[in-house]
Specification:
By secondary structure, the chain is mainly α. 59% of the residues lie in helices and 0% in strands.
Length: 78
């Protein structure tokens, strides 16, 4: 299903989307993202975590992890 700019679900068919756009334009439906129930502070900290983890690793360790992930992704043993 197509998603809007904030991840909300939108109708896949043209007629359904046109009806939704009309409702948004007339104010019948509000085009605002719903609260996803996640803590915004925790989301912000989570975004920082990957960069901090990568910065603390040696290049060899990062390469090892990347090779293991590629092997899993492509089904090779290694």
């Amino acid at each position: 299903m197509p998603k809007g700019p904030n991840g909300e679900k939108r109708p896949a068919d043209a007629v359904g989307l046109a009806v939704l756009i009309g409702k948004i334009a007339t104010g019948e439906v509000e085009d605002a993202p719903e609260d996803d129930g996640k803590d915004k502070a925790a989301q912000a900290m989570g975004k920082k975590g990957g960069k901090a983890r990568a910065a603390s690793m040696t290049p060899e360790r990062r390469a090892e992890i990347a090779k293991k992930a590629a092997a899993k992704r492509w089904g090779h043993s290694g």
